[in-house]
Design goal:
The chain is mostly beta strands. The protein contains one helix and ten strands.
Amino acid sequence: AVTSAEASSQLSASRGAIIKAYDQNDKSWWATTQKNQEGTVFYTMYFAEEQEMSEIQYFRYCPTNAVSWGMWGEVEVYVTERGGSERLLLKEDFGMSDCPKTIYFDEPLPVNLESATVKILTAKPFNENITNVASAASIEFGCVNPENFDMLAYFTDLSCSELREEITYEETEQLLQLYE
């Protein structure tokens, strides 16, 4: 789990705050100020020493629709393992799209990450004069089905859109507790 984060800037503490990009709520959001900044826009997340996941399998970026600017173009993601040095994990062009994107790693990452830094090299500009900006509804590193959860024991199909008839309210409560 992410314990804290820092960024090159934030819009304000209440709107566009740093924490809102890793709170696992795609309706909240982080954004930089709407002023030109020196250097590269960055967002760094710090991880807890004890992770609930056995490995990290993907990186996900979800743009926000709360603002019409800051959608990511070219990014570089760097990771630092505990006691190690920073290394480049991936380079990606998100195309300044307003659609979420998940990148699955060829080789899973160990869970001993200390931090991950996203350097946003290009993004959709605020206007023609203010170009060094960024925003995100969520930024996350994750693991697919970390508890080897059997979805078909609860749902009628893998889309998880409909519960099986025999599933009780108590069982759904237990299911929710797995993911709190």
